[in-house]
Amino acid sequence: MALPRIAIIGFAHSPNVAGTHGTTNGVEMLIPCFDKLYAELGIARTDIEFWCSGSSDYLAGRAFSFISAVDSIGAMPPINESHVEMDGAWALYEAWVKIATGEVDLALAYGFGKATAGNSDQTLTLQTDPYTVAPLRPGASALAALQARAGLDAGVWTEADMAAVAARTTGASVDELLAADYVANPLRAHDIAPYTDAAAAVVIASERRARELVANPAFITGWDHRIDSPNFGARDLTVSPSTALAGDTAFGDRSRAVDVAEIAAPFTHQELIVRNALRLPDSVRINPSGGTLAGNSLFSTGLQRVGYAANEILTGNAGSALAHATSGPLLQQNMVVTLSDTTAGDEN
To answer: Which of 95, 185, 232, 237 has the fewest CB atoms within 10 Å, i.e. is most exposed?
Structure first.
């Protein structure tokens, strides 16, 4: 069955910075994003028929943190709103479903987080098994180091391969990067995305509304989300079956030679894992935005990847794109979205 013709038509995000003066409710970061989208699309706040947010009470250090963020929208007149305790990419999926059901034509998904407000590396431990892993308090970087070591020992990648990923973002040479000291052996500082504060927002619309508002809608041609076992000992950490399956479903029988791919990989070796799982050809431009290595803004990182991928089409820089989002420890959950300047029906 063909997917409904739905497109991404707008993207905005606050700067990925190492610290902000705003509170953990995200309002200060979100309002400029919303205002930018209203102005670019020529719409008003009341034109949005459905809102969905992605955030975390654990990260914000407060209960029902998403309720506070509604101040950036305004609850009057009454709004149609929902929330997911995940990255904003999953909020966008809920918005996509809302449009697919025919209930609304125009929706906005947003994600926000103030990752630098506490020890995010340790906070993420709460995602691990509460009986066998969490009591050991392994930080996210320590777990990633175990995964990187597994790949090195198995000969799946080398430290030079990892450094080449970072070199694309930092502009430094591979040799320079390899000369740096380890932070969590075998990870060096350039292998680990720095935690940053940011918010992001994406506007999604039915085909009719999309063509009314923008010249080059980024039509969604495939979308899937899969999950691997949370038990690290039950899976091979050097591969990502869930990414492979999500990619197979999202692409279907279409070519994988997309113009650009935005991959959410907070560690250099994880980009290698995702790229291999998606079987992307060498011609694909990977993370022209800088990717997650430019700033790991928890709960908006995945949504930013979708937004950046869509923006390549919206601006006419690409005809097709892919976006990837991840959640959970060591690439446990993975989402793949494929985009095109034509609809799925046109392609077929």
So the answer is: 185
